[in-house]
Protein 1
Amino acid sequence: MVFSSYSFIFLFFPAVFLGFTLCARFWGRTAAKVFLIAASLFFYGFGSIRFLPLLAGTMLINYGFVTGLSKVRARGGAARLILGLAFLENIGLLVYYKYTNFLIETVNAVAGTDFTLRNIILPLGISFFTFQILSYVVDVYRGRSKRSAFLDYAVFVTFFPQLIVGPIIRHDDMTPQLAGERFGRPVARNMMLGTLIFAIGCAKKIILADPLIAHAQNFYNVMGNGNFFEAWGAVFAYTFAYYFDFSGYTDMAIALGLFFNIRLPQGFDSPYKARNFADFWRRWNITVSQFFEDYIFRSIFHFGDRIGKLILATMATFLVSGLWHGAGWHYVLWGAVNGVLVCVANIMTLKRKKLPSWLAYPLTFLGILLVRVLFDANSVSQALAVYRTLADIRPAFTATRAFLQSGLAYLSSYPGIAALLLAGMGLCFFAPNTREIAERFEPRPRYAAYAGVLLTVSLFFMGRVSSFLYFQF
């Protein structure tokens, strides 16, 4: 069940919100929390019933780890043992479900063996809920967090708006909100703001992302038959599609949280307005980037000299990030290239060097476009094939007329895609983002009108809605 679907908008969410409010009103916060946990588990089970025991089991096991850590001496031998077991359980699940076949394929390729691939299905949302749980365990080990009541912990893990694709929220950011005065009490301003942000996210997904995804995937699925303009069109389409797809989901998650008076962290902050790649990764998928920074980068950064440790920590962080995004060497290469570009940006900052603005911004966006090919392709070889097509401008000199005609033919064949790309560029480069809209929000009739128009248009196209791209991670 995706947020941008009839069943969610007209059935699931109204029923959950009504049930939650009634429980809080007549039976108190404890009943409201139990209801919210049950509804969230139902939400997960609706999309992946076979893995519901896995989610519930890992949630219970890790609460046991947290309980154990809260009873032993901080960072002593027993604490390190418990932390090691927590890593073994959480990372072990990720390795088994996400990387078993990748490891088998790699061994077969290197050693010439013929081990059979396993028939393993990736549990929905495992990359996100595993990281969220593990961050809490590590924070308790480090003394940054304390064990909370089980119901608060269970809400933190299962809260359905961010359960599957984030944004990743810290335990100590979530649980105080569950004890706040507003929890369980409808707040009109939050509901109005939530409706507006949900409408924006829904429109991003359905009106912009879905058609662009279909167009880009069509090119990648028939790779070898595309020309220069089709290749660039697909790369632009995927670049904007991923942003509108994932930021659309994040907007809807944040909006749904507001109905329960739970503020989820922002996931995006106009990433295509970045000046360099370090700036880009401070703006893109912010909560995941912060996770990698806090738990990988800062664990390495204290070794070596200033620039040396910066390079080591950055490269390690992005190699892990690449592998986390997918089990394939093109993801590892994608992480490595991003790491190099972030190192360049950071070193330039340390050396007090920077490109002029007129060059820095377009050059960064061009880099984003080109690096994304490694992420979107199915393999390194396919990515290289796309790069060859993108760089093949020989027809522009040997058959200029035919080359220009192919460009006009592409535009005439896909006028809707061209219009969506122009609209996407306008929104990404010139329009305020969701955070800025929320900061300026005041209940006004015009915002209700904006939300109504966006939701109405989205509902007309909702019958062909697709899953979110990040569901595969």
Protein 2
Amino acid sequence: MKYKIVKENNCTRKNFGKYKAVAVHNDTVETEYIAQEIQDNSSATAGDVALVMTELTETIMRHLKRGDRVRLNGIGLLKLEIESDKVDTPEEFNVKKNIRAIRLHVIPESYKGKQEMYEGIELHSAHPEV
């Protein structure tokens, strides 16, 4: 996994002006590519895999939008969380005004304190001269 060092430019953050590592994402792997890869490693056809992935996506999204949490073996727990402004009293709260965003949270599966998703990651600078 590649990373680069960037300066925190948001003056509202406590670490303003300091440097941090951020992930560099060079490629985006599409559904068709994943389906082909699974076909190459199993007896399922790419079309079968794409169909199942489409149904899986629609099913997961439907449950998340209903407020359910979704646990996927080997991946972890998915859930939607709300980011909102703070108000002094419940009466002051306005959905349109105070809700800033809805975000997808993925909590990696763990077994005895180990999260396989993060094991074996090798970090490499995107700018080796740094």
Protein 3
Amino acid sequence: MSKNPTPERRARMEYVLSRRQKDLTLVLANIHDPHNVSAIYRSCDAFGVPRVHLYYTDTPFPALGAKTSASARKWVESVRHKTREDLAAALRAEGMQVLATACTPDARPMRSWDLTRPTAIIMGNEHRGVDAELADIVDGEIYIPMHGMIQSFNVSVAAAILLSEAARQREEAGMYDSPTYSEEEYGERLERWLQK
């Protein structure tokens, strides 16, 4: 049963849902800092990412504050995976190219990747990056070019930069102008949002 939001709020929901990019996602792999996780969810919402995949094998998913739970996580779905195989199967079923953030010689700068393709980007742990156990499920490695002495961004900042680049490419391709959800998917999600 609908909570009957104001016409303005309903219109905002309809607009936001119409611009969601269902074929763009992040994988949070053992990221432990709740502030980083909260910030990543906010960036996902801001850039139209409707769902994140959670891969937590040796780190508990952090307890997020009530404010966060009532804001960005309210609008971004979470899908948990217990095994690498489950994660890989879920991403492959959606036809995703799977990229891992890395600073290896094989990594390519973010602008050299076609992020208008269905894409999942794995964001690794704050201290050790993306775990080696995930290497065989990725199609390539992506990095953000930097010009200073420090060789890495905070993981939440990196997520925002990568999503901003994906959004830039997708905006240029007109992808935010056409809904990625089918009418049925759109209707189901709108009804769920109306309950929030």
Protein 4
Amino acid sequence: MDRIKVKIINRSHHPLPQYGTFEAAGMDVRAYLPEGPVTLKAGDRALIPTGLYIQLPQGYECQIRPRSGLALNQGITIANSPGTVDADYRGEIGVILINLGKNDFTVNDGERICQMVIKQYSHVEWEETDRLDRTAREDGAFGHTGLS
């Protein structure tokens, strides 16, 4: 497991994102709602502020992912999942929550709304060709391997 240093500004009054367990990949991030709760009706989406600003090292991104409990139990997920925060972005991290459930859901200040995963990435250098290497799968796509 690699460890990197990431600069962070926390303008909220909540703890910094933190891992729930030693081997967890994602850190819980909390809503920063000083003006009060936000209620999402079924089908609604909203940009939820976090009060967090980060400076990632070059070659890293921050992925914003749903919390499985909110998704399963309430139908709350992230509209652009996973959301990406690029290394050159310096604005506040906002989370686009969407309510895919049947009931209203209220997001309260300090509530854990998503997970943050920091990942290294590569830039692609395209190599144009008129032929790709053959594989056993070839062009088999959506559902080609069956249901079971």
